[in-house]
Amino acid sequence: MVKATVRYTGEHFKAVASINKVNRYRAGIIAVGFLAVLTGWSLHSTVDLISKLNNQKNDLLEIFFWGVIMFFCVGTLLLATIRTAKAFFTSEKYDKMQPSQQIRSFEITPDTLLLTVDGEIEHSERRFILSGLHSAYELPEFFVFYLYKDNYCILGRKEITEGSPEELRKLLYDALGSKFIIKK
Q1: What value, to the nearest 5°, has the Cα angle with vertex 107 and ends 180 and 165?
Q2: From CA 105, how far away is CA 72, in angstroms rounded?
Q3: Per residue in 72-93, pLDDT tens?
Q4: d(C-alpha 59, C-alpha 71), whole Å
Q5: How do residues 114-143 score in pLDDT, each as one tens digit?
Q6: Nearest alpha-carbon partner for 115 in 159, 143, 145, 149
Q7: Which of 37, 65, 94, 96 is the Cys-Cys partner for 14 at CB 3.0 to 4.6 Å?
Q8: Which of 103, 104, 111 is nearest to 1 (CA)?
Q9: How many CB atoms sit inside 10 A of residue 82's CB?
Q10: Backbone angles phi, psi at 72, to 5 degrees
Q11: What is the pTM of this model?
């Protein structure tokens, strides 16, 4: 059995962000790819209209109008993508976080994960079947339990009050197998 008491800080969330970087890179690549396709399509349409142009002013105005709109849309999307990527990859926001007011207690046995949350307005207990967790990660300083695909708990190695990180690693590996990932 492993027990721990945790009060989340920015360091906890910085550790989770390090796990999710690959997904953020993938999202950025998809957005840039979409922008490239959109830009190619707009350039092709513009060249196609110019080739069909018979010195008519209406066609020239239409080309200018669509060119300005495409330039504005592509520029806006590109700026939004850059700002989003910057927010994803910087850890400044985590450095400024104050410690959580809630205290989370973990009790991990070979079969279950008992999570107790104590705060000013909440006292709750949740029991999870350890083998039913979505996944778990061991990082250099933290363990991250994905209870569901997008719901996680974070436990620091130094926050273990009973048992050891090695014992926790064994419990997670025995229960989760390949869903337990060690990242060093």
Answers
A1: 50
A2: 51
A3: 777 777 777 666 665 555 555 6
A4: 18
A5: 999 998 888 999 999 999 999 999 999 999
A6: 145
A7: 94
A8: 111
A9: 13
A10: -65, -45
A11: 0.63
Residues 6 or more apart in contact with residue 11 via CB below 8 angstroms? 94, 141, 156
Given its phi and psi angles, is residue 177 left (phi above 0), alpha (psi -120 to 50 degrees) or beta? left
Residue type for 164, please? S
User: 116 and 104 in contact (C-beta within 8 Å)?
Assistant: yes
CA distances from 75 to 18, 35, 64, 81, 86 (A): 29, 9, 16, 10, 17
- In whole angstroms, what is the distance from residue 145 CA to residue 154 CA? 6
How far apart are the C-alpha atoms of 41 and 48, rounded to whole Å?
10
For CA atoms 13, 127, 170, 176, give the dihedral sign. negative
> DSSP of the chain, one letter per residue?
-EEEEE---HHHHHHHHHHTHHHHHHHHHHHHHHHHHHHHHHHHHHHHHHHT--S-HHHHHHHHHHHHHHHHHHHHHHHHHHHHHHHHH--HHHHTPPPPS-EEEEEE-SSEEEEEEE-SS-EEEEEEEGGGSSEEEE-SSEEEEEEETTEEEEEEGGGEEES-HHHHHHHHHHHHGGGEEE--
> What is the 3 state secondary structure string of 130-158?
HHHCCEEEECCCEEEEEEECCEEEEEEHH
